[in-house]
Please model this.
Amino acid sequence: MNQSAETTAAPIQVKCIDHVTLIVKDLDRSRDFYVGLLGMDEVTRPGFSFPGSWFQAGPSQIHLILEHDQSSPAGLPRPSKEAGAATRTHHFAFEVDDAYAAADALRAQGIKFMCEPKLRPDGYVQTFISDPDGHSVELFSAPKA
Model:
């Protein structure tokens, strides 16, 4: 599809990202990460025929599915050790008030970083950590006014 949006209206208008689904090996360990560490709220999940958990942050949710014989494997391949690879891989991002303060709180919990906090060219600050199954999680904050 090479036509610009200016000449042809898109047939669909996406409103927002509603949720991200992750396959995990241990729901309790993942709950500790998303609720206990990142402060998300656990919300009611429909009665699917397989185990899982749902967590809410603002308008967005993380849906966890416990790895089973009819699911994908848990986690993602590890990024290469090349410079920058930790931030240039599959990931999702959560906005926080202050990424530097979030990093300090993570350090106090003994969390290892994929990428220490760094300033982007547009003034945003970003840092990357892994969840218990190796999913890359970005925490970022907007430039201070």
In short: Residues 27-37 form the longest helix (11 residues).
